[in-house]
Amino acid sequence: MTWHRLTLTPEEVAAGKIAPIKDGFTSSFRAAGGPRAMALFQKGNEDGGADLFFTPDCGSFASDFLAEIGAVPCPGPALIGLDLLVGHNEITYYLTT
After folding, report:
1. Domain residues for 29?
2. Per residue in 73-82, pLDDT tens?
3. What is the model's pLDDT at position 97?
4. Are the CB atoms for 51 and 42 separated by under 8 Å?
5. Could you tell me which of 29, 90, 86 has the C-alpha nearest to residue 53?
6. What is this structure's pTM?
7. Could you give the 3-state DSSP secondary structure of residue 52?
8. pLDDT digits over 23-47, tens only?
9. Are 32 and 38 in contact (CB under 8 A)?
10. Which end of the chain, N or C, is less surrounded by CB atoms within 10 Å?
11. Average confidence (pLDDT) over 47-62
12. Is 31 helix (H, G, I), strand (E, B) or coil?
């Protein structure tokens, strides 16, 4: 299964673009019944931008949302340095087993 990523520029981060994406994802997460392995992570970039990472289960439960925001398939990121924005706290357990 494939992860998805959305890269935001420093200007987009400063303009508050993360909040509406988080809110939209939260709606998809709740509508799907809160799957254990469905999550949204954020990782800041050195330039002030950010990468938002969507776990593979998001492709099954929120594909329309991913397409709407322009998220693209990507390899799974290293979990170190990721901040969980939406999902279950034990998500790293489910992603590593």
Report:
1. 3-96
2. 999 998 888 9
3. 56
4. yes
5. 86
6. 0.92
7. strand
8. 999 999 999 999 999 999 999 999 9
9. yes
10. C
11. 95
12. helix
pLDDT of 80:
86
Single-letter amino acid, residue 48: G
pLDDT number for residue 1: 74
pLDDT(3) > 60:
yes
The number of distinct structural domains making up the chain is 1
75 in Cβ contact with 56 (< 8 Å): no
Which residue is it, tokens 């993360």? 18
DSSP 49-66: -EEEEE-THHHHH-HHHH
Four-point Cα dihedral 29, 24, 96, 49, nearest 10: -170
Question: What is the DSSP code (8-state) at residue 71?
Answer: -
Instruction: Say how far apart CA 44 and CA 50 lie, in whole Å.
Output: 4
For residue 5, give both structure tokens.
């990523």
